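Record (2Fe-2S)-binding domain protein, 188 aa.
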Amino acid sequence: MTTGRTDVTVPPPPTRRIELTVNGVTRTVETDVRSTLLDLLREGLALTGTKKGCDHGLCGACTVEVDHERVLSCLTLAVSIDGAAVGTVEGFADGEHLDPLQQAFVDHDGFQCGYCTPGQLCSARAMLREHARGDLSAASFDPADRDVVDGPQHLSENEIRERMAGNICRCGAYANIVAAISAVHGAS
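=>
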């Protein structure tokens, strides 16, 4: 026995036109107002470097930069960043020339399966910028790590671990990730 109506029309979801500058290229896109930045990047713009891990903001695989600040793209509505500059892992390398962070991850074997690597790289770049401008973390107050010179505090391994805590590596390459970030920080 069929009791459902067949003449019901479901309206399409509301959309909005937004403009983003993604990896230096300005894009105008029509997006579902419910779409996350992650889904817009992967499905709308075919930038699949950013990964969908947990889809709950817990693993960091989806980390990208929005106006030079790291964000979890799975928790960010695309319409909320209309007019923003977005940086993804696809914007790191200059042709065949790797970004220093990418090269350090290769040199220090900072990845195994590589699934978390795009988020780790975006997070590390933003984290180094945060540290350079003097932003503090919980580890900034550890007396054992107080090696203050002129300018920002030395970026110790504990400090790197604290600042990168939101990025999970299921393979456990943390020591190598810390070494890679430390090498880049030491070179700057």
